[in-house]
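Lay summary

Proteins are chains of building blocks that fold into shapes. Our project writes down both the chain and a compact code for its shape. Here are two examples, one after the other.
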Amino acid sequence: MADYESLEKLAGAVVADLADSAKAVATAESCTGGWIAKSITDIPGSSAVFGYGIVSYSNGAKESILGVNNATIAQHGAVSEAVVGEMAEGALRLSGADIAVAVSGIAGPDGGTDDKPVGTVWFAWAVRDGADARLDTSCERFTGDRELVRELTVAHALQGVLERIA
């Protein structure tokens, strides 16, 4: 069962810090299916800091909406550093936000491989820096059932946003 209270506190801190900094965030989500955006928009006042949440579950959506290159997906797979980087950059470009977070992973119970077992999730945070963007990525391997992997992904994504608000 998800720890909604902890996610609510974390999302509340993200919204408050973004508001205090006069910044906005956007999301590009695959394995979480919009849960990061939901966590943020559950917080009263979030409309001042959140305008875009893109669920790009399929590769086609990643390509057509976020501009992820088909060759990147073909070479690295949808669950990869290269793909989440392009997802985050696409969300930042589309939204005009100051920070974009992107996630792509294997929540399970199926779909894992030896190289990318169930619980593997790639994260990217694109942070606007003038006309350019700084990109940070990380890979986590969470254990647990599908619900827990997704919950931990949401928490890690929100924590990453919180750490990048300046």
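And here is the second example, written the same way.
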Amino acid sequence: MSIDLNPVRGTRDFPPEQMRLRTWLFGHFRATAAQFGFEEYDAPVLESEALYIRKAGEEITGQLYGFEDKGGRRVALRPEMTPSLARIILQKGGGLALPVRWYSIPQCWRYERMTRGRKREHFQWNMDIVGVPGVGAEAELLGAITTFLGRLGLTSADVGIKVSSRKVLQAVLTETLGVPADKFTAVCVLVDKLEKLPREAIETELAELGLQGSLVDSIIETLSLRSLVDLAALLSDEHEAVTELRELFALAEAYGYADWLVFDASVVRGLAYYTGTVFEAFDRGATLRAICGGGRYDRLLSTFGGADAPACGFGFGDVVILELLKDKGLLPTLSSAVDDVVFAWSEDLRPAAIQVATRLRAAGRSVDLILERKKPKWAFKHADRAGAHRMIMVAPTEWEAGMVSVKDLATGEQSNVAVEELT
């Protein structure tokens, strides 16, 4: 029987050379989160399907890897982490001291059309702040994003962050155009599809909501705004959306990352739970999809039956950023590396080689012990492939004298060293 040796379409294998890169990237995720005082958490990759079924026609609902388990329960592989975060926050209840500053690096699953930078499984760095109502929380998260990008060698010339607010579209739709408040979230989900679907399809879906297709023109006009001056002219200087965005840009100046930010009213974000500030990082070279995105979701907890708390967060996928780093020539060269390779010159010296390797490992060194009977030429090639620093050879004459032969593989220098002095 022939078996397809490729991973399932849209998924990835991580052999050692890819795992080294993943570990390197995750190390930067974790180091940045630690710089900003966040704690790591995790949750099951398998959750109740009900956690992700929301009434807004979101794409995510149709992209679920959902199924019935053997107990007759509807479950799904998580497509995003925020609902799991909300579930944990509610589970802990009043015993959880706010504000919460948590981060995670979950694997997420969505059955969707694949393009460059988009797969059906990916890892996503999430950072969330729960319990802080002002845009200071968003400013802190944006600070983490720009700090992380800077760690990787990227600058504001490479990456920009579009910033807007769901309150902008809400003001235009509900206050100016008279769209009923209970239809607003559904319209936002449609607006997020404007670049993906033909206009006729959007108009049809608006009609299904009982709204006029002519709304599209007003929506597009609003989304074309690119400055806070124009936004203030549309809504007024005192409008909540305007004052919050101005405050956020002022805080960005204090943090020192204002040059990364641009106001762009077209940023809406497709998930129904966003309530205020929304943002997306983008490739200024315009060759890749959004690098990361997030925003404020103050009313998420009530959708699961709990009391709401102010909250905001972002998700940052691993696939797109690696593509961008590849384009920019910023991917590191990562080789496997062990401290020592230990080689027994003959089979009767294998127990001695084991003793040497055990002593070195107990001292905290990483050791590759050659387990088979091999020739010295093979052993040296193996040490080179392993990126070893030293080759330690257990040979008859030296061992009888309580010594081993040690070769520094960087300098080529070789000497006999007493076993007790190896470490």
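What can we say about the second shape? The longest strand covers residues 121-130.
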